[in-house]
Specification:
InterPro entries: Cas12f1-like_TNB, Transposase, Transposase_put_HTH. This is Transposase. Pfam families: Cas12f1-like_TNB (PF07282), HTH_OrfB_IS605 (PF12323), OrfB_IS605 (PF01385). This protein is α+β, with helices and mostly antiparallel strands. It has two domains: about 1-180, no CATH class; about 275-425, no CATH class. It has helices at about 15-40, 50-60, 80-100, 180, 215-240, 255-290, 300-305, 310-315, 320-335, 380-390, 395-400, and strands spanning about 1-10, 120-125, 130, 135-140, 140-145, 155-165, 165-175, 190-195, 200-205, 210, 290-295, 335-340, 365-370, 375, 425. The strands form three sheets. The protein has a seven-stranded antiparallel β-sheet with strand order 2-6-7-1-5-4-3. Helix 2 runs antiparallel to helix 3 (about 80-100). The longest helix is centred in the middle third of the chain and has 35 residues, at about 255-290. The protein is globular. It binds zinc ion. Zinc ion (ZN) binds next to loops. Zinc ion binds next to loops.
């Protein structure tokens, strides 16, 4: 089982400098490869990442673009993994794009990475570094001090070095033997989880789990600091005599205060991301530990983000990260994750008699069923409906046509997608194998934490 551990590095000035240059190299090589890919595709060719890498290797020590002011190839100072990995990352990104398109999902073509805007990281192959307790020996920089020792034992598959709000991290991917990675479950319940707007999560047993409180205070501070920061930007614009939008390529003079403010903002965002991640970890661990099956909605998160009012709430809950953690942890605990089709009307069905409430509006927190007079809390009712998808109880009670799809071993058979939904069992191919470490997929929904 592939698991990752992301460990903070105590960097020296020289190491920080090298890391920044190596990450910058990885970004430039990615951009070069993507530009070549696009050029070839535009000419009707079929680009190939490995052929691009070969082409790059031919020019990387001679092309003027890759030489420094003295005419020397600066790439020689950077370990080759940092400039070789972007090619396989690009191949992977395109493969994912075509797969998603074929599956009829929303897909985005790989994009160019912008300095200061994109995640900064570079890769290290497993034979290029070694871990020794609380330190690691990396190519070009030698020994670096780590804040923790590696949590997993197993075969080390690779690592990436990345930056978050001024701090550097080493994310080590380890292939942990299954018997070591497995954890004992403490319960065999089946729980439906409604990821909500007012509570972070509502469980089918009626429990409402609120987002962590420090988050609220931090979010308030975030608003204040972002406002301050944008005022500084406005001031800089006014000083430069710019009205309206800043033209492309224009560089505003950067004051010390603005730099300081930007760093403070980044730190706060990183803290918020950490608090959130910690909360999500605890919740997902608990769900996988106590349940043989957890049912969640397969939300169209992108679609909901487009809806301004809900956007904030959904971003806060970090649904993608929640689902990602559930998926890999369910393997460790032997729990099953069941996805309800996003069209399954979990909120609108009465969990007692199955009557559908077509009038239910987004703002209705509670409602009374017209069929059986039951008074429902919106979120609890939705969570119960989700739970029943896995147990089949909904089908038994409401005599709706049963789906042929069987649930996995252990749980009850006969899923009943009332209202024309479909249920999918999450497969476990999305571990943490990507080079960027634990927060891989979180970036899309959680706040930008860099
Ligand atoms: Zn009812």
């Amino acid at each position: 089982m592939l698991l990752a551990h992301r460990i903070r590095i105590n960097v020296t000035a020289a190491q920080r400098d090298y890391f920044a240059r190596a990450a910058g190299t990885a970004r430039r090589v990615w951009n070069w490869a993507l530009a070549e890919w696009n050029r070839q595709a535009a000419r009707g060719l079929r680009p190939n990442a490995m052929a691009l890498k070969k082409a790059f290797n031919r020019i990387k020590y001679s092309d003027p673009e890759w030489l420094d002011a003295d005419g020397k190839p600066w790439l020689r100072a950077i370990h080759r993994d940092a400039h070789a990995q972007p090619f396989s990352n690009l191949a992977k990104a395109w493969r994912r794009y075509f797969e998603q398109r074929r599956a009829g999902q929303l897909a985005h073509v790989p994009r160019f990475k912008k300095k200061g805007r994109s995640a900064e990281s570079f890769y290290l192959a497993n034979d290029k570094f070694r871990l020794e307790g609380r330190s690691a020996v990396l190519p070009k920089v030698g020994r670096v001090a780590l804040r923790e020792t590696l949590r997993w034992s197993g075969k080390i598959m690779g690592a990436s070095v990345s930056r978050e709000a001024g701090h550097w991290y080493l994310a080590v991917q380890v292939d942990v033997p299954d018997q070591l990675a497995r954890r004992r479950r403490t319960g065999d319940a089946v729980t439906g989880v409604d990821s909500g707007v007012t509570s972070a999560a509502t469980l089918s047993n009626g429990e409402k789990i609120a987002a962590p409180r420090p988050l609220k205070a931090a979010l308030r501070r975030l608003r204040i600091r972002s406002r301050r920061q944008s005022r500084k930007l406005e001031a800089a614009k006014a000083a430069a005599g710019i009205v309206g939008r800043i033209g492309k390529g224009t560089r505003l003079p950067v004051s010390k205060n603005r730099t300081k403010g930007a760093l403070a903002l980044a730190r706060l965002q990183a803290r918020i991301a950490r608090v959130r991640r910690d909360f999500t970890h605890k919740l997902t661990t608990r769900l996988c530990r106590e349940n043989q099956a957890v049912v969640i909605e397969d939300l169209n998160v992108r679609g909901m983000l487009a809806n301004g009012r809900l956007a904030r709430a959904i971003a806060d809950v970090g649904f993608y990260e929640f689902r990602r953690q559930l998926t890999y942890k369910s393997r460790r605990y032997g729990a099953h994750i069941v996805l309800a089709d996003r069209w399954f009307p979990s909120s609108k069905l009465c969990s007692r008699c199955g009557t559908r409430n077509r009038e239910l509006a987004l703002g209705d927190r509670a409602w009374t069923c017209a069929g059986c007079d039951a008074l429902h809390d919106r979120d609890v009712n939705a969570a119960i409906n989700l739970q029943r998808l896995a147990t089949g109880a909904l089908a038994a009670r409401t005599a709706l046509p049963e789906a042929s799809q069987a649930v996995t071993r252990g749980t009850a058979a006969g899923l009943a997608p009332a209202g024309g939904g479909k249920v999918t069992l999450v497969r476990h191919e999305h571990g943490q194998q990507d080079g960027s470490g634990q927060e891989e997929n979180a970036v899309h929904i959680c706040t930008r934490n860099r």
